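job 3f2a | input accepted
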Amino acid sequence: RITATFAISMFIYTPAGMSTADAKTLTDVDAPTVFTDAQSFFLDGVNNSGVIVASIPASGDIFMLIPYADAGPYTVGASAVIDSTALPNGGIFVTTTNAAGEIVVYFRSPLSDPWHYLDVAHASGAPRLTGNVVAWFDPQEQLTYVAAASTAGLLLISQASAGHWTIRNLTNEITGSVAIVNSLVVLQPQSGMTILGGMTAAGDLVIYGQTAQSNSQGQVIWGYDNLFNSVVRAFNIPVPDFNIGERGHLVAYVTPWDGLNIVGSAANGQPVALWNAPDIVGWRVTNLSEATTNPLGNSGLTHLTAYITSWGGINLASGDNVNVLWWAPSLGGEWRADSIRAIANGPELRGDTLSAYFTPWGGLNIAGLDDLDRLWVYWWTPDTNQWAAASISASLPAGSPTPVGNVSSLVTPAGDLSIFARTQTGDLLHYLWQISNPVWTVTDATLVGTT
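job 3f2a | predicted structure (451 res):
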């Protein structure tokens, strides 16, 4: 199997004769023409796992041949987003897409168990994706869900029983709804009725939400709204330009008072929030940059990540200098901005790798990679009352794997801290810090995991 930009081409390789047979008739119709037009290719190397590095002499393209099975590969695609959720037994559930755009999950349940992985696309029949996936645990239904953005529709996938996965296409179920194709986010309000939001192919922000009704199969019925139509265009407000490719994915968060927020980086890197609160009828839209007088908060806030504190603080971190636009209840309507990098005198982190999290003991944390792919975390606690920068990579044993690409994080109710990234070859890396073992460790979940 050859994967490139979510497209697949196939060749048959016979090890005994070191020969290849072109299998163009078996390739997908959307396979890159550089493969379908190729008359031959060279085998440049092979490792013990059977991964082959090959090249096409006519074009100079280099690619990999990965051993094929019905399920897998259990790897993280080069531009894939990694999402995770805590499980009620203290375990963790991680989902992403591999290089072919197939949904895969990894889980440890409980956290003391070894890693397992599953090809959810194969188990549920889900198509290959061009968008991202999110995961959450529904305490009312006691189910772990995966939602997937795709051009075919918004897919809702759950494991109804051991080994049996179900898939629903919410776009097909709801008349007039439009598919979320990228930047999918999830909100879990105190009502327990989950909301999914994201961008359509036309660049509109839409939401799908659970209702209190069920269909004849006992499944929860979902509703739909285009927020750009109902909140922005309906009141002649300029439509925010959430350019995901240039300024990063949407972020979503729920405040302690059950305020629902979806924020994107609009023109000039100004964060624009679409939000709702218990005492507000419908959703509102606010340009957060207009609520601060600090120039740091006026522009350049891209590739956002958010952390919400137990005292009601809202913090949006962004950019290479780890600038944070923040608000606390004591500030009234004013937002403030700080450069955490300058305060802590720490390294520049690549903005598109940042992931922020809040700990049960009041800790504020922003993790990311520097230009040498070293993992760092900026951190603050009420006890220290000052920001500091710590290199997680430097604290690990020599020879530990190097993280690349997107970084994500998860905090369990017990206070276990997880950071996820991938290796250059797509293995899922799990960085873990526990109260019972307060040092960072790293595990290659793809290498040690089993089905």
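job 3f2a | Confidence is low (pLDDT under 50) at residues 1-9, 24-29.
job 3f2a | closed
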